[in-house]
Amino acid sequence: MGSPGDVTLIHSLYTVPVRPAGVVYKDHCVALRDDLIVGVFPVAQARQNWPDANLIELPEHVLLPGLINAHTHSPMTLLRGIADDMELHVWLKEHIWPAEQKFVGPEFVGDGTRLAIAEMIRAGTTCFNDMYFFPDATIEACVETGMRASIGITIIEIESAWATGVDDYIEKGLQLVEKWQSQPLRPIRCLIKPWAGYQNSQKTKAFLCTYTSWKPNGRSNSHISSMICTRFTGWKSTVYWTRICRRCTWRSYPPKT
To answer: What does pTM read for this prediction?
Structure first.
């Protein structure tokens, strides 16, 4: 079962695995070797298999896989409280976007991401799906802390501190995608993330369709629910945008037959 000392056993009161679903194990150990999970075993079997293993006792804990935060703008931890309880477009156009133009840069993004990562880890989140400006600074913070993440390459029809327009967003984004998709055993994935149907032109939508159709593992996501919540976007546009994103999902993750 491997040389003595190379395995760590985590013994908790309860262990909740992903598979099989709906199962809770009592008095089991998760066995780790070289930071990889070997398996989940009853405590007696685990101690028999690896009598000299490092043992971590969690007698009052529930052990489960790390949570995934599926939608974040992690650097915006530094913008908390700047404007609350107002209509979406007022909040964005009159408060958030002006503040981002004034304050946001690589250092701001790096610091905000590190704060977000600390808060996520404290709450049991070990992976997040992010969308913000200066994504290279977010990636650096993730690599530094060992956090897994899906990093979004934002495409929006406004000038920001990171890019001057759509072509600039796309050019910088694709460079970042190519850089990180070539990394072996990468904990970082890059996705093209157009802001939303009400903030992206037909040209941007055409690019998205082309990219996800012809690029191997081309993936994307976007704001859908916020489109439904705004009077600036009709149902027709929302349904159209949803179909694009569903197409991206099917392209990247074909349904099981």
So the answer is: 0.77
Secondary structure percentages of the chain, helix, strand, coil, to 5 = 45, 25, 30
Domain limits for position 247: 67-252
Looking at the structure, tell me whether residues 46 and 74 fall in a common domain. Answer: no
Between helices 166-181 and 202-214, what is the axis angle to 10°? Answer: 20
Binned average pLDDT, 10 residues per bin, the chain of 257 residues = 70 94 95 91 96 95 94 95 88 92 96 98 94 94 93 85 89 84 69 66 71 60 53 47 49 41
Q: For residues 141 and 21, state if they share a domain.
A: no
Q: Are 55 and 178 in a shared domain?
A: no
Residue 97: both structure tokens together: 């976007």
Q: Which of 116, 174, 182 is nearest to 149 (CA)?
A: 116
- Whether residues 107 and 39 fall in one domain: no
Omega before 216 within 30 of 0, i.e. cis = no
Using DSSP bridges, classify how beta strands 148-155 and 188-194 pair: parallel, antiparallel or unpaired.
parallel
Q: Based on the fold, state whether residues 119 and 240 are members of the same structural domain.
A: yes
Parallel/antiparallel/unpaired status of strands 54-63 and 36-42: unpaired
Contact (CB, 8 A) for 202 and 163: no
